[in-house]
Amino acid sequence: MSTLLNDWRHRSTHRRVWALAAPMILSNISVPLVALVDSAVIGHLPHAHQLGAVAVGSTLYTFLAWAMGFLRMGTTGFTAQAAGRNDSAALRRILLQGLLLAAGLALLLGVIALPFSHLLCTGRLVSRHTERQSAAGHSARHQSGQYRAQPVVRDGPGLGRGGVGPGVGAGGVGR
């Protein structure tokens, strides 16, 4: 226990911990901010059902964003082990596996969303005066949500190697 207390008295330890923790804190804060901005923009429209639709969409978006967190946590642990062994082939394999899994999940979610997008765009689930708005909003939301898993996987290897930022490029695989 005394070793732990001694380590926390050193400023260099604090800097190293915050170098890893600060980007993660900011990325975790950004997910609910998407819903907040959507609500602030749509809140100025005259009908309450529009704000209700944003609330449902924001809840689904937040759920999917947190549900994909396992990709980041899984790649971070495996990447840390491979980096400890100085195994660059394993680092590339872990990154590729994570990206392929993220792409597969995005494709699966896109296929699942297709029947619902047809219902939304034809106006069967929404009233007639929001039909155009739902088509435009669905397209923007679908594009942003479909690629949510990729940055999660991309950042995992960088964190697993004790770095900050993406797993490929500066500070990533092959440094």
In short:
With 175 residues, this protein is mostly helical.
Give an overview in words.
With 175 residues, the protein is mainly α. The chain has one domain (2-160). 78% of the residues lie in helices and 0% in strands. It has seven helices and no strands. The chain has helices at residues 2-7, 11-42, 48-67, 69-84, 88-122, 131-146, 149-160. Helix 5 packs antiparallel against helix 6. The radius of gyration is 21 Å and the shape is flat.
The beta-strand count equals: 0
Order of helices and strands: HHHHHHH
User: The biggest beta sheet, please?
Assistant: none
Helix content: over 70%
Tell me the number of helical segments per DSSP (H or I, 4 or more residues long): 7
Q: How many structural domains does the protein architecture include?
A: 1
Strand content: under 5%
Instruction: Write down the Rg.
Output: 21 Å
- Poorly predicted ranges (pLDDT <50, ≥5 residues)? 167-175
The SS-based structural class is mainly alpha
* Mean pLDDT over all positions: 75
Shape: flat
Distance between the termini: 35 Å
Protein name: DNA-damage-inducible protein F
GO molecular function: antiporter activity; xenobiotic transmembrane transporter activity
InterPro entries: MATE_fam, MATE_MdtK
Biased composition (Gly residues): 157-175
